[in-house]
Amino acid sequence: MADYHMPLMDGVELALSLRRDGWKKGLFWLMNGHAAAFKAEPPSNLHIARIIEKSFDPVELSAWIGEALQDPVPCQ
């Protein structure tokens, strides 16, 4: 899980860098303060599994994590 707004790169750039470096396992979740802050939809080849808008409900986050653990989807 990464924040969209970070000091040296944004979360989409981080996902792109990880995928380029061969990271294929696991889900990548992106957090953002405002949906309108995205310059564009993240490219589908980054396999961003979920975009979470802040501030999120901890109970809802716990449910999302539970779903991910029950039905993990490997990145292609």
Can you tell me about this structure?
By secondary structure, the protein is of the alpha/beta class. The protein has one domain (6-70). The protein is 30% helix and 17% strand. Strand 1 (2-3), helix 1 and strand 2 form a beta-alpha-beta unit. The longest helix has 13 residues, at 58-70. The radius of gyration is 13 Å and the shape is globular.
Overall geometry: globular
Largest sheet report: 3 strands, parallel
Number of helices: 2
Strand order of the largest sheet: 1-2-3
Question: How many strands in all?
Answer: 3
Q: What is the CA-based Rg, rounded?
A: 13 Å
Residue windows where pLDDT falls under 50 for at least 5 positions: none
Instruction: Provide the succession of SSEs.
Output: EHEEH
Mean pLDDT across every amino acid position: 78
Number of domains: 1
Question: Descriptors for this entry?
Answer:
globular; 76 residues; alpha/beta
Chain-wise SSE layout:
Blueprint: E1 2-3, H1 11-20, E2 28-32, E3 48-53, H2 58-70
Parallel strand pairs: 1-2, 2-3
